[in-house]
Amino acid sequence: xxxxxxxxxxxxxxxxxxxxxxxxxxxxxxxxxxxxxxxxxxxxxxxxxxxxxxxxxxxxxxxxxxxxxxxxxxxxxxxxxxxxxxxxxxxxxxxxxxxxxxxxxxxxxxxxxxxxxxxxxxxxxxxxxxxxxxxxxxxxxxxxxxxxxxxxxxxxxxxxxxxxxxxxxxxxxxxxxxxxxxxxxxxxxxxxxxxxxxxxxxxxxxxxxxxxxxxxxxxxxxxxxxxxxxxxxxxxxxxxxxxxxxxxxxxxxxxxxxxxxxxxxxxxxxxxxxxxxxxxxxxxxxxxxxxxxxxxxxxxxxxxxxxxxxxxxxxxxxxxxxxxxxxxxxxxxxxxxxxxxxxxxxxxxxxxxxxxxxxxxxxxxxxxxxxxxxxxxxxxxxxxxxxxxxxxxxxxxxxxxxxxxxxxxxxxxxxxxxxxxxxxxxxxxxxxxxxxxxxxxxxxxxxxxxxxxxxxxxxxxxxxxxxxxxxxxxxxxxxxxxxxxxxxxxxxxxxxxxxxx
Length: 501
Fold this sequence. Notes:
The protein is built from two helices and 38 strands. The chain is mainly beta.
């Protein structure tokens, strides 16, 4: 074969390969176009096909101004049989909006998201945050906006609303003089709020103190709270939102949101009236070691509830508790050791639940522990018209070498103790019996969204056992209900009421 013929054949082969490659390329292009066409056919363009949402209005709990909110979220659902392409997600108020968006893990400085796809029968998360600027208005500030979804000629929206609250901000504050706080707006406490020696902090009716994580009220002087029935004083954590994995449970129902109230003066005089202390590590903690100088604490018409450790610790402390609830602690609810202790018309109940709202095992810790030790000041205890109950068989204990000589008086009360005391100090006591139903709601009911309610049940053995002469001194219970409305007063701080009242 000549060289020229070889060249001719190579040229012919090259032409054949070129034509073949062209056909292959055209074929591939047609496949891609066909696939794209099929993909387009998978997305609905029917304006009748709409999105659905897990809520029509996303509401933030009250937010302290100038502090970023926690993140709230909602879900969008495409319940159609075909995928849907959302051309635009944005905020109705645009750049002036106080809200910020995160769409399925993606952020945008402009809060605008284009050409998002959501599959058939699929869902997508929208996360929302907000910051509310400080203003001169002490009343809650309402801000509103909406998330707008545009697709196939449609516009749908989810409303956004948040309330902002101005506050007094205190960071590691030492109060070196007598002071009365204001009640026009709440106080937000970062670090410790410390009352110096011999000084008095007074909290007027309606005053609210919100404590950040691990913050405390430490009192080397005196504490006075002057709440009323309609305007109680509140001491609580600063988380105003709800627990995400337990929605709609507020964080204020979760113990350990802040430290607690520490009363550290051996000469302190403390008076708490119509005051709610909730969800810290401890409630009132008075660990006085001085046997000769005892502080005085008066607690009246108060609710001290939900602590990782203790509700009240009174060591070498004179303590008076009137018409109050002390409840739900991971250890002793009330611990008494040294001093004069008087409890009248009060409820001590321990149905502590852990932060998953499952009942917590606390077999070693009765609700009331009275510890008689030689190194403590002389002790004397009085319980009248009270309830002591909880989740274990023995919720009341006196640790004393000579119990029969213990200076105590316990009358007209319900005490949950399987091994009842036979000593003469106990008169007209209704002791625990298996199967007793004491309270209306003695645990958190997540499904029914009912929180702990320590009002006596209609069949409660605590009903109608109170001493009328004592009850007449405190005729209204902690809910403002007359104790004699059904004739005979009940034990505890709450009078029984029908379910429809």
